[in-house]
Amino acid sequence: MSRYDFAVIGGGIVGLATAWQLTQQKPGLKIAILEKESTLAFHQTGRNSGVIHSGIYYKPGSLRARNCRDGKAALEAFCDEHGVAWQRTGKVIVATHNHQLPQLQTIFERGRQNGVDCSVIGVDRLRELEPHCAGVGAIHVPESGIVDYPGMCQTLAQLMVAAGAEIKLNTRVTSINQRTDCVRLLTSQGDLEAVQVINCGGLHSDRIARKSGQKMQERIVPFRGEYFELKPEAHHLCRTLIYPVPDPRFPFLGVHFTRMIHGGVECGPNAVFALAREGYNWRTISLRDVFESITYPGFLRLVAKNWKTGIGEVWRSLSKAAFVKALQVLVPEIRAEHLESAPAGVRAQALGMDGKLLDDFVILRHERVINVCNAPSPAATASLNIGKYIAEQALG
Known about the structure:
alpha+beta; FAD/NAD(P)-binding domain; 8-stranded mixed β-sheet; 10 helices
């Protein structure tokens, strides 16, 4: 039976960054990365919009705020050193109605407390930056950018293989048995043992955590984010990144416009309950996933509080006209004929028993297993710093 110092479950950017940080902090470790798919970065990492977040939204002092700022700097330095494509584009957060101005000011003050380079701007300056954008005020964040996250994952994988790590694709973990001196993992490719295990399983992280013996009431509830892409003739409508003022009741940022690192402009996402943890469209249904969600008290409380908002998200999913109308709030010139469908993503969102979506990172340890149970945005931006934090906990 193969035995390792560490087994990392999950080949997304958080898992890969954690494994890489282990090799940086203690060279010579024997590490296995277990990924159930045939390629790395298949789910959340490969399906996000590629934004490098600045940390402007997050509560000062939270894990999200601290890790985003330090992780952003580490990510940019890593990309420069290893030739991963990235670009500093800048970003505007736009208030489209006067009642949003107090929330805009709150975001600005959070950004300043977090050390973000940002400024409140008026309509004239907004039009200079984004001539086709409508708003009554905005925040300009010049340090925001975009990056090739799947390319970064491939680079991390290459570096780790060179350092002696093993990447095991098509390897699904089915059982976790903690012993006095190691953890035995039963996988679809056979058994292996590791002194410690790190669970970065994303959409399935709560299930993996419970397999390890971790007691937790929170549950991952999948929310699908659907996107459109602007056709080439409409690319001029967005120069940088255009975001709305987010609803403070939810951790989602609302539909926005994002320039992509390999060209083009993406529009979205919405946030609709997915009928499977890997449900990238309405046709993909998992009865197990649906049953787990609809019988979970936290989900029922969430629906009871926010059913009107939920119906609106579903309507935008089913109606392109409704989606276009939401986009027109920011860019009035957008028309349905400017848009073509783009791949959707599913967000691994942890939900508490009280019906509240967890808006910070949740990293729990149970004996020899560290479980990353909630890693919402900006986890990709912060991945190198999250990985450093986990590696320090594992080695400390």
